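Handoff note, outgoing to incoming analyst
You'll be picking up this chain. Sequence as last confirmed:
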Amino acid sequence: MSGRGRRAALPPTGYRRAPVIDADGLVVRPVSGAGAELGVWDFRDCPGPEDFRRPLVAALVEQGRDWDSADTWRSQARMLRMFFREAAAADPPIASAGQVTTDWWKAWVGDAHNRRVLAAVLRRVPDLPEVTRVFMEKPQRQSAARRVRGSKQAHTRAELTTVRAAAAATVRAGRLRIAANTALLERWRTGRIDRGDPDRVLGELLDVLARTGDLPREQGKGQQVARLVERAFGYQGTPAALTRTACPGRQPPPPGPRGPEGVPDLQP
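Most recent structure output, in case you need it:
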């Protein structure tokens, strides 16, 4: 009946819904409840005997009788094709549903989602061993090895105290270094470091580092910093020298003397 109480129109005389499976039993042409075609899924090129594949394709169709999405059919068909490949690669190859034992199913590499989807299809195949069918129907618990591997051990209170103390010390050292370097950079930029003062070289280097993100390098020597930089920072190497950077806050042009092409005059 329609919403107004009138009987809905019947399909034309002789109408038959198109079969979902082709005559060979290996090609699926699903149609939604609204009559929309949901694609063509061909299993003729899958490995394994046809007598093994046909019941599984029929089981897939039975499982998907209420699917109205082409994407759902695509993902389910992809999983069944993967199962056919895995079965053909087994030693010995799986050539019938009766060979899908519990041990083989346990050892199969499929993840939990694939197992759940394919188990629903396989359980519809009449030749599947009953013991395997019962095993597939039971909720599978995670193996003990996976539980141990995935478990996390919480820190003790004493360990947390040690970690927090170490983190606080690292942060405090960084804050003190930044504060000291910022003050030194400010002194150099405002001209309050006299020529000959050891801090003058450090102030100029910090200014270069704050403006360019790098330190003066030796020409033709790759990433090696200039010898003056090594002397200024105690020959601790480039990474240690780079950690002397000040906070990148105000960055006005320095009033100190400049060399050619903007290279700082680093003479003490």
